[in-house]
């Protein structure tokens, strides 16, 4: 995969630290804004990125790029992903995918027409610890209660309170706790249990944005809650509770560093099956395989899951 990256923010810096762990991935190009050109120069030098652009179109027109990683503020995901597809590039788009179901379907239609791959980058559902949870649901079933918690006091929260509004807290850029943190909880719930019958979001609003909130999802046989908070501190423990026992996620749900299972009447068993020390390695290894093998079946399944998640997310956002 010859990868061109759009963006130079925190997630790009994070990804570049592990790009050398992804087999068959070549860092072909990076595009930044003109304002961030010096950051781009520094990244190009440190990570030996072949080309640096300060114009997205130049990257789209680079014949040595076959896949574009869209790693920009949420509000630009759709427009940049669409431009990349129209230029004939596969697209890996950071979470949350796009703003609406209609936008997602429009991108998929372009990808299908051009026989390209489009996929959402969402770390947790590709982790081995998530697969442990998925494979052991039957052992604790029937399941009646799901409670996921992703609380992380934001490094930008104090600046936000002082009036410095960064993209993660900017309603005009589709920020907020639901979009930034809650999306991880939601992907877990939808991947495990499918779409719910009812969606209710109860946010804590400050300066027209949800700095925290509780999302409630109702199923015929279970109730699921998702706590997402950028304005609080918590040790972060999540549980999936059934009649025969419980499955436990220790730590932030985007990383799932440890998981556990406790069957009724037994001691808890805590494990870590994750193969890699960084949360992004597993997903990008999978994306590279899908794109190299033109595995449209796998890409379609991933898109359907993202679409189901986005439908719930869109409904929750409308309740802010």
TrEMBL record:
<feature type="domain" description="Gfo/Idh/MocA-like oxidoreductase N-terminal">
    <location>
        <begin position="2"/>
        <end position="118"/>
    </location>
</feature>
<dbReference type="InterPro" id="IPR036291">
    <property type="entry name" value="NAD(P)-bd_dom_sf"/>
</dbReference>
<feature type="domain" description="GFO/IDH/MocA-like oxidoreductase">
    <location>
        <begin position="146"/>
        <end position="247"/>
    </location>
</feature>
<dbReference type="InterPro" id="IPR055170">
    <property type="entry name" value="GFO_IDH_MocA-like_dom"/>
</dbReference>
<protein>
    <submittedName>
        <fullName>Gfo/Idh/MocA family oxidoreductase</fullName>
        <ecNumber>1.1.1.371</ecNumber>
    </submittedName>
</protein>
<dbReference type="GO" id="GO:0102497">
    <property type="term" value="F:scyllo-inositol dehydrogenase (NADP+) activity"/>
</dbReference>
<dbReference type="GO" id="GO:0000166">
    <property type="term" value="F:nucleotide binding"/>
</dbReference>
<dbReference type="Pfam" id="PF22725">
    <property type="entry name" value="GFO_IDH_MocA_C3"/>
</dbReference>
<keyword id="KW-0560">Oxidoreductase</keyword>
<dbReference type="Pfam" id="PF01408">
    <property type="entry name" value="GFO_IDH_MocA"/>
</dbReference>
<dbReference type="InterPro" id="IPR000683">
    <property type="entry name" value="Gfo/Idh/MocA-like_OxRdtase_N"/>
</dbReference>
